[in-house]
TrEMBL record:
Family (UniProt): Belongs to the transcriptional regulatory Rex family.
UniProt xrefs under Pfam families: CoA_binding, Put_DNA-bind_N
Domain of life: Bacteria
The entry's DNA-binding region: 17-56
Coiled coil residues, start to end: none
InterPro entries to which the protein is assigned, alphabetical: CoA-bd (IPR003781), NAD(P)-bd_dom_sf (IPR036291), Rex_DNA-bd_C_dom (IPR009718), Tscrpt_rep_Rex (IPR022876), WH-like_DNA-bd_sf (IPR036388), WH_DNA-bd_sf (IPR036390)
NCBIfam families, alphabetized: PRK05472.2-3 (NF003994), PRK05472.2-4 (NF003995), PRK05472.2-5 (NF003996)
Protein name, entry field: Redox-sensing transcriptional repressor Rex
Keyword Membrane in annotation: no
Subcellular location: Cytoplasm
């Protein structure tokens, strides 16, 4: 059975915020950046930042830190954010439409090239420039547009059934925004997105520090 577990998940989750700090430093004209500076900007331990960055294969230079351009390349390459990925949104409702308009994903080379829905009043419409197709057309559109990732934003009661349709039609990875734990063949990669976990951290911080 194929496993998709990553041992260094917390480090991977921190890399995008490092990337943001390093890109800002580059815009400010800095050529080198230290692990200590990144850690202070993000309120982390410097040792943690250095360990996380070591994952990308880059080493800092004594007394100088990391060369900014190389660090950006190393993080983007580790995250595969220097490679174009093509995806569709399935469920063009409130959240689906918001994601269609979220341009940050394009900066990371994730291109949403189609949306799918079962609501006839949405089919044929465009949201933020992306057309909505009937879910019945997914197999045809996968061949035409060449995407293999789906962002699942359907109501939770349709989630499992819709995910099975996606898997049957050749989708290889599902970014699941519903709160249903999907049961799918082991070769399908599923990433569950849970906004409540961010709120959990915020709630605990408010209780402890306010
Ligand atoms: N709105 C949010 O901020 C938010 C945040 C986190 C998670 N979610 C989750 O995301 C999902 C969508 O939430 P929403 O607020 O966008 O709902 P919504 O009702 O606005 O949109 C759901 C869309 O999915 C479509 N749909 C229904 N069944 C479908 C199917 N089988 N195939 C394709 N499309 C189908 C509907 O026609 C509708 O357009 C829910 O599971 C929700 O729990 C929403």
């Amino acid at each position: 059975m194929k496993q998709h577990k990553l041992l260094n998940l917390p480090s991977i989750r921190r890399l995008p915020s490092y990337l943001q700090v390093v890109k800002t430093a580059m815009e400010e004209g800095k050529e080198y950046i230290s692990g200590t500076y990144i850690s202070q900007e993000l309120e982390l331990e410097a040792i943690q930042v250095r360990k996380d960055l070591a994952l990308t294969g880059i080493m800092g230079r004594p007394r100088m830190g990391y060369p900014v351009k190389e660090l950006i390349n190393a993080i983007e390459s580790f995250l595969q954010w220097n490679t174009d990925q093509y995806a569709c949104v399935v469920g063009a409702g409130n959240l689906g439409q918001a994601l269609l308009g979220f341009n940050e994903l394009k900066k990371h080379k994730l291109h949403i090239v189609a949306a799918f829905d079962v609501d006839k009043s949405k089919i044929g419409k465009k949201f933020h420039g992306t057309e909505v197709f009937s879910l019945d057309e997914i197999g045809k559109k996968i061949k035409e547009l060449g995407f293999n990732m789906a962002i699942l934003t359907v109501p939770q009661e349709s989630a499992q059934e819709t995910a099975e349709i996606l898997a049957d039609n050749g989708i290889k990875a599902i970014w699941n925004f519903t709160n249903i734990k999907l049961k799918l063949p082991s070769d399908i990669i599923v990433q569950q997105e849970d906004l409540s976990s961010g709120y959990a951290v915020l709630s605990v911080k408010m209780a402890r520090f306010s």
